[in-house]
TrEMBL record:
This is NADH-flavin reductase. It comes from the Bacteria. Residues 8-196 form the NAD(P)-binding domain. PANTHER family: FLAVIN REDUCTASE (NADPH) (PTHR43355). Transmembrane segments: none annotated. It holds the Pfam family NAD_binding_10. Signal peptide: none annotated. It comes from Lapidilactobacillus concavus DSM 17758. GO terms for molecular function: oxidoreductase activity, acting on the CH-NH group of donors, NAD or NADP as acceptor. Gene3D superfamilies: NAD(P)-binding Rossmann-like Domain. InterPro entries: NAD(P)-bd_dom, NAD(P)-bd_dom_sf, Polyketide_Oxido-like.
């Protein structure tokens, strides 16, 4: 059993990660600004805190810290500030950082020169989030003293998708499934992240997952 802190544990992705970690018998600390009063489960507690108020003292006893942080609309620049803060409080510790990344910064060409968010089909409304998440990833990738893994979903990140337990893995390029779609359910994404936590294969790397 590991002690896993989850920033944004009650959000869309965070809820699936929390559920999957609990299903596997881990101790989960949900890090949220407003802890729900109606959720009572074994091995689940809540830490009332904004990400930017977290300190080394708050996280030093975790085996893993997952960030499912998503900046508010109009404040997308906060993605970079959030990453800088996490790197600062985690530097020099043994706590592993797992980041719920975005698909927009994945590449769509074999030469790794064109991001998904550079394509004509990418919605303008999503560009501020994707571009700023990409900047946060670049900062994390350049960090020297943090144990990290960054997991990007596919282009379509499905809240109501099936929990199949199956997925395929890639690195820097956007993946597609056998039907020509780039999608992954949040349930299968959570399985992939917990698989990585329990059996690390992508330390100091970004990788991506897609439905089969």
């Amino acid at each position: 059993m590991m002690k896993i802190g989850i920033i944004g544990a009650t959000g869309h992705v965070g809820s699936f990660l929390t559920e999957e970690a609990l299903r596997r018998g881990h101790e989960v600390v949900g890090i949220v600004r407003n802890a729900p009063k109606t959720i009572v489960e074994d091995n689940l507690t809540f830490l009332h805190s904004d990400l930017f108020n977290l300190t080394n003292e708050n996280i030093k006893d975790f085996d893993v810290l997952i960030s499912a942080y998503n900046a508010p609309e109009g404040e997308e620049i906060q993605h970079l500030a959030a990453m800088k803060h996490l790197v600062e409080i985690l530097a020099g510790t043994d706590v592993r950082l797992l980041v719920v990344g975005g698909a927009g910064s994945l590449y769509v060409d074999a030469n790794l020169t064109k991001h998904l968010y550079d394509t004509d089909a990418f919605p303008d409304a999503f560009k501020p989030t994707s571009i700023n998440m990409g900047k946060a990833f670049d900062y994390l990738q350049a960090s020297k003293d943090v144990r990290w893994t960054y997991l990007s979903p596919s282009a379509d990140f499905l809240v109501n998708g099936a929990r199949t337990g199956k997925y395929k893995v890639g690195q820097e390029q956007l993946l597609i499934d056998k039907y020509g779609k780039s999608e992954i359910s949040m349930a299968d994404y959570a399985i992939a992240m917990l698989d990585e936590i329990e059996a690390p294969e992508h330390q100091q790397q970004r990788y991506t997952v897609c439905s089969i």
